[in-house]
Amino acid sequence: VTAGDRMFWVTEVSPMNVRFTLPQEFIGKIRVGDRVSVSAPSESDKNYPAKIMLLSPVVDPSSGTIEVQARVAEPAGNLRPGMTVNILVKKAQ
């Protein structure tokens, strides 16, 4: 081990936040406070409710998407930091 080597990192598991992107067409259709549902591909029958906490005000010009952050309601079950999950946006009129 030498100075500056990464040996570990600290990961917070509570509250569990998920970060994802949506097409720019969702601008104005979703808001902070709206509910989404989170599920792991390996457990598609289990859905965890989450609440949108942050919507980026900027559209990524290379992908045409906006970044969204939602907080999973406790308990987060088998969800773990770094997992790939599915997001269901319930209110997108």
- The spatial strand order of the largest sheet comes to 1-4-3-2-5
Task: Count the beta strands.
Answer: 5
Per DSSP, the total helix count is 0
Mean pLDDT: 87
What portion of residues belong to β-strands? 35-45%
Shape: globular
One letter per element, helices H and strands E, the order comes to EEEEE
Short structural description:
The protein is mainly β and 93 residues long.
Topology:
Layout: E1 16-23, E2 35-39, E3 48-55, E4 65-72, E5 86-89
Antiparallel strand pairs: 1-4, 2-3, 2-5, 3-4
Key structural traits:
mainly beta, five-stranded antiparallel β-sheet, 93 residues
Structure, explained:
The chain is mainly β and 93 residues long. The protein has strands at 16-23, 35-39, 48-55, 65-72, 86-89.
